[in-house]
Specification:
The chain is α/β, with parallel strands linked by helices. It has a single domain (2-133, 172-226, 235-240), classed as Spore Coat Polysaccharide Biosynthesis Protein SpsA, Chain A, CATH 3.90.550. The protein has nine helices and 13 strands. The strands form four sheets. It has a seven-stranded mixed β-sheet with strand order 5-4-1-6-11-8-12. Strands 2-3 form a two-stranded antiparallel sheet. A two-stranded antiparallel ribbon has the order 7-13. A hairpin with a 2-residue loop joins strand 2 and strand 3 (31-32).
């Protein structure tokens, strides 16, 4: 399997911290934010990684990551000329992916457990998409795509619901696909926000009975706001201290 890290966007929710830098280069405790999704992919056995970033500060991303030798992986880069939504960014990976299955992870997602079992299940399974779910707070769910569950089966994903469905099961920013997803993305229409929505991709695979979901057991964070950035720094610091005892 191959990996994709989505590290574009304008970082508007973190302004003015992002006025002169890419948000994925901001520190989470003792390392840049983007190091965390890199480690998530590497620990899942993925070494061939495409980093997709925007035109603003792209050179800083290249300078920080280099070829990937420092991390024990191999990086390829693509530039998204302007924000168009997560599916729009994923579509840039079609040539990189080829005929392989892949996982796309948002560059501001911080996970506290290995996703290797989920990646292996997808690698060896027949489904065309697998998403990861996290039981968040109601406030977190209002800012995310949230899964409607019937038992363990995902019936629908609702984007930023005013009243989240029971369980607050957030579809976090880590998505596994076969190359068929690129055909799906070509059929999408922009939402009222003027962007392609990842929830529409999820719902396509739900309707065709080809999506499975796995539930995270530990903490997940989207460090895309000032408040969450601060919380991520505090939580990672506490976790790191615990490992040194």
């Amino acid at each position: 399997m191959k990996g994709i890290i989505l590290a574009g966007g304008t970082g508007s929710r973190l302004f003015p911290l992002t006025k002169v830098t890419n948000k994925h280069l901001l520190p989470i405790y003792d390392r840049p934010m983007i190091y965390y999704p890199i480690q998530t992919l590497k620990s899942a056995g993925i070494q061939d990684i495409l980093v997709i970033t925007g035109t603003h500060h792209a050179g800083d991303v290249f300078a920080l990551l280099g070829s990937g030798q420092e991390f024990g992986v191999h990086f390829t880069y693509r530039v998204q000329d302007k924000p168009g939504g997560i599916p729009h960014a994923i579509a840039l990976a079609e040539g990189f992916v080829g005929n392989d299955k892949f996982i796309s992870i948002n560059g501001d997602n911080i996970l506290f457990e290995s996703i290797q079992p989920f990646v292996e299940a997808f690698r060896n399974g027949n489904e065309k998409s697998r998403i990861l779910l996290y039981a968040g707070t109601t406030e977190e769910a209002k800012r995310a795509g949230v899964a409607v569950l019937k038992g363990e089966k995902v019936m629908q994903v609702i984007e930023k619901p005013a009243q989240p469905p029971a369980g607050n099961w957030i579809a976090i920013g880590a998505y596994m696909y076969t190359p068929e997803v690129f055909d799906v993305i070509r059929t999408l229409k922009p939402s009222k926000r003027g962007e392609l929505e990842i929830a529409d991709v999820h719902n396509h695979f739900i309707k065709t009975h080809s999506l499975k979901a796995s539930k995270l057991r530990k903490q997940w964070m989207d460090a895309g706001t000032i408040e969450e950035l601060h919380r991520a720094n505090s939580l990672v610091q506490k976790t790191s201290r615990g490992k040194t005892k």
